[in-house]
Design a protein that fits this description.
With 133 residues, the chain is an all-alpha fold. It has one domain (17-132). The chain has helices at 17-45, 47-57, 67-100, 111-132. Helix 1 runs antiparallel to helix 3 (67-100) and helix 3 runs antiparallel to helix 4 (111-132). The mean pLDDT is 83.
């Protein structure tokens, strides 16, 4: 009797394509979220330019500080990039673990939890900025 040369544990049953397709749908949802963050970040970053143009037309007072919207917008763009990268890494890890038949253990600090906390902090910063101007 010869032992197989591949020492990786094999799953006891064939891989369910529904699980793989659900994982891919989850990945695509995270990619949409990342793209939306990047797009909205661009709008927020350029909001100061819009306020400056309104002031030059005389329809609005001159804004005092335009740097906050640029910084928050840039952070949101970078956050969108990070979400896309982390979603791809998380998807690849899941597929590898599933193919090996390893059990899935949920994490306390998931990508969604961390993203929610960061977006809440950015939202509070923007609200404080809008009250200040």
């Amino acid at each position: 009797m010869t032992l197989p040369t591949d020492s990786k544990p094999q799953p006891s049953e064939p891989l369910d394509p529904r699980v793989l397709l659900a994982s891919e749908r989850t990945l695509l949802a995270w990619l949409r979220t990342g793209l939306a963050l990047m797009g909205f970040g661009f709008v927020v970053a350029r909001f100061g330019l819009f306020l400056r143009e309104l002031a030059s037309l005389g329809t609005a007072p001159e804004p005092r500080d335009l740097q906050m919207s640029q910084w928050v917008g840039t952070v949101m763009i970078l956050l969108g990039v990070a979400v896309n990268i982390l979603a791809a890494v998380q998807h690849a890890r899941f597929i590898r673990r599933y193919a090996r038949g390893e059990p899935m253990t949920p994490k306390v600090l998931s990508l969604g939890t961390v993203l929610s906390a960061i977006l809440a902090a950015l939202g509070l910063a923007l609200a404080a900025y809008l009250v200040r101007i």
